[in-house]
Amino acid sequence: MGDGIPSWLDENFVVAALEGGLDRQTNVSIINLKIDASNTVEGFSSDIYKVRVNYKVGDSTQEQSKALVVKVPDASGLINVLLGPISCQKEFRHHKELLPKMMKIGNFAFAPQTFYSNVEKVVVMEDLKVDYHIIARNVQLDFEHCKLVLATLAKYHASSVALYKENKELIEFVGKEVFFPEGGPLRQWVELGTRTLGESLQKQGYKEYADVFLSRADNIWDLLVESMKPQPGHLNVLNHGDLWLFNLFFKYNEAKEPVEVKFIDYQASRYTLPVMDLV
Length: 279
Description:
Pfam families: EcKL. InterPro entries: CHK_kinase-like, EcKL, Kinase-like_dom_sf. Residues 123-279 form the CHK kinase-like domain. The protein folds into two domains: 11-177 and 229-277, no CATH class; 186-225. 36% of the residues lie in helices and 20% in strands. The chain has helices at 11-19, 78-83, 86-106, 143-166, 168-174, 187-203, 207-214, 220-228; strands at 28-37, 46-57, 64-73, 114-115, 123-126, 237-239, 248-252, 258-263, 270-272.
């Protein structure tokens, strides 16, 4: 199947994904299967593989097709080196347990469909690039795109509140802070970056702006840690945590108007005030 494809990523793996696990009675027969390693850099913590499969189910003569993404944690990836395996563990539980429950509660699909995976921490999901599109990073979202993102985000937040009442442990696990925990590994980098930026502005004669950064360099980390925590007595929700352009997939109608958006990449999710997804 080509260099770089894991040995377990084969026809048996894809059949299991389509059948939904060992307890399912569906009988899938593969007609054609193509597995490729992605030729683009799409993540800092995982290797991405694209699967294209044609198959039949049971005695049916009707041929079906699926485009899947298989996301495999990379221990040498930047995020995993800095933060450890927790981010991938969070995303795996997001797809395996959390997202299906949240979307059922809200009766609304804000994430790609997840398929069964018989390999721990490996995520199998629909390839949104078949029907959805990413906006170029140098293009700002217009009002209609922003409205759609915020409306979908509100449903994501609301469904997490409902699920929290049923499964507090699950929400708190996937909402565990990974970037700004107390004593986190990024502290030195954040403080040094803030101080360096202030000094650079100072050298360029922008004293007013330089003072803003330099005055906060020594406590910027503590401020970040506190701001990311759940706030007692306030509405706390599960935040996506990383809503930038490349994690937003838009679907358009014939008039090229955005009608749907789905979110991907849930490693940075955190349980805190909903406003944190807006800043």
